[in-house]
Amino acid sequence: MTEVLLALVPLLLLLGCLLLGHYPGCDTIVRLSARRPGRPQARSTWKPRRPEVPRATVPSGGLLLAFGIARRPPPLTA
C-alpha cells in the first residue's frame, strides 16, 4: 500500500499544479525559446521548371492481365 501511495505522489502533485493554473516547466520553455535565435529567412531561389516529358502509359502487372482479358472475345457456345 505504501508503494502505491509513493508512486501516486508525483501524479497528485502535477495534477494539483495543473488544477491551480500553474503549468510546470512553462517558465523554462519561455526562457529557452527567448534565448534561441530565429530561423533565417529562406532566399528566393526560384528556378523555372523544365516541361515534363510525356510518357507512354503501358499497363503492367494486374492491369495488363485485366486489359488482356477485357479484349478477348466471349467464349463460343457449343
Low-confidence stretches: none
**Biggest sheet descriptor:** none
**Approximate strand percentage:** under 5%
Q: Report the count of strand segments.
A: 0
SSE ordering: HHH
Basic shape: elongated
Radius of gyration from CA coordinates: 34 Å
N-to-C CA distance: 85 Å
Helix/strand/pairing category: mainly alpha
Helix content: 40-55%
Count the DSSP helices. 3
Mean pLDDT figure: 81
Commentary on this structure:
The chain has 78 residues and is mainly alpha-helical. It has a domain at 1-35. It has helices spanning 2-19, 26-35, 62-71. The longest helix is centred in the first third of the chain and has 18 residues, at 2-19.
Topology:
Blueprint: H1 2-19, H2 26-35, H3 62-71
Concise synopsis of the structure shown:
This protein is an all-alpha fold and 78 residues long. It has three helices and no strands.
List keywords for this structure.
78 residues; elongated
